[in-house]
Amino acid sequence: MRHTIIALAAAAVVAAASPYPAQAGCRGCAVGAGIVGGLAAGAIIGSAIANSGPRYYEPAPVYTAPPPVYVEPPDYVEGPVCHLERRQVWDGYAYRTRHVEVCD
Asked: Per 3-state DSSP, what percentage of the chain is helix, strand, and coil (rounded to 5)?
């Protein structure tokens, strides 16, 4: 709105600054009227362009991994029950103590 008021004020100043009154039979008066009209039209179009808001451009899409899905464990476990035991294992040179998984 501010730009429109400024444009209209500028057009009024240009129109009021004309040193000669309008005459019906004057030659060259159409040139002055064309200049004033062009300035007014330019001010109106310029203020309309200035009042238009900035354009929004969407950012590029970014891949994000989906959130993990948590599933509650069942109340019972099927299959063998496994645990670790310390046992002596022959590795080809000597017996070594290792943790071995033993399933019942």
From this structure: 35, 15, 45
Three-class SS of 43-72? HHHHHHHHHCCCCCCCCCCCCCCCCCCCCC
Say how far apart CA 71 and CA 56 lie, in whole Å. 41
Joined tokens for residue 37: 């009209």
- Return all residues near 24 (Cβ < 8 A) that are at least 6 apart: none
Along the 104 residues of the chain, how does pLDDT read in single tens digits?
A: 666 777 666 666 666 555 556 566 666 667 777 888 888 999 888 888 887 777 777 888 888 888 888 877 766 667 788 899 999 988 888 999 999 898 87
* Per-residue tokens: 91: 């590795």
Give helix then strand counts, H and E, for the chain: 2, 2
For tokens 């109106």, name the residue.
44
Q: How many CB atoms lie within 10 A of CB 7?
A: 21
> pTM of whole model > 0.85?
no
